[in-house]
């Protein structure tokens, strides 16, 4: 069952051509994360909605569930015992991962059906900062599912969308994918 039934949505300001579904990180929520994203500017000082007026932005909320690390209920896609050692206690992560995959697949399917946009025009993005080894494992898994994956590493070792360079990198990636779709 999809527990994220009311995502935070920013509609396109011109003809809808693509959708980006952006997943927030642990402890955040859809509205909070969307406000952070839309405050970010590219190096030309424009906002993402100005650069991509035809994109619909969808921010689903992760389920609220018990966090073993924080010992409280919080928004998270799955529980993890240690961010630094993500392979530790995999059995703790599995139920939440399965649930989240179902939620995300529901969101993708609903978006494609409701908007009549094909899956190759829907982007799935997240804000996770993960260790390099974990990101490589994640990338291999997603590529194995037929997805196109691009990871960005920065000098500080993080993958977070950093202003200005990180926003420019995201803009370049989206433009590249949109251009490829036009061909």
Describe this structure in words.
The structure is a single chain. The protein has 183 residues and is α/β, with parallel strands linked by helices. 39% of the residues lie in helices and 15% in strands. The chain contains five helices and six strands. The protein has helices spanning 30-39, 48-51, 90-115, 132-144, 165-182, and strands at residues 8-10, 18-23, 55-59, 64-67, 72-75, 122-126. A four-stranded mixed beta sheet has the order 1-3-2-6, with helices on both faces. The protein has a two-stranded antiparallel sheet with strand order 4-5. Strand 4 and strand 5 (72-75) form a beta hairpin. The mean pLDDT is 79.
Order of helices and strands: EEHHEEEHEHH
Strand order of the largest sheet: 1-3-2-6
Helix content: 25-40%
Please tally the β strands and state the result. 6
Instruction: Name the structural class.
Output: alpha/beta
Q: What count of helical segments does DSSP give? A: 5
The largest pleated sheet is described as:
4 strands, mixed
The residue-averaged pLDDT reads: 79
Looking at the structure, what is the overall shape?
Answer: globular
Radius of gyration: 16 Å
Alpha-carbon distance between the two ends: 37 Å
Please report which band the strand proportion falls in: under 5%, 5-15%, 15-25%, 25-35%, 35-45% or over 45%: 5-15%
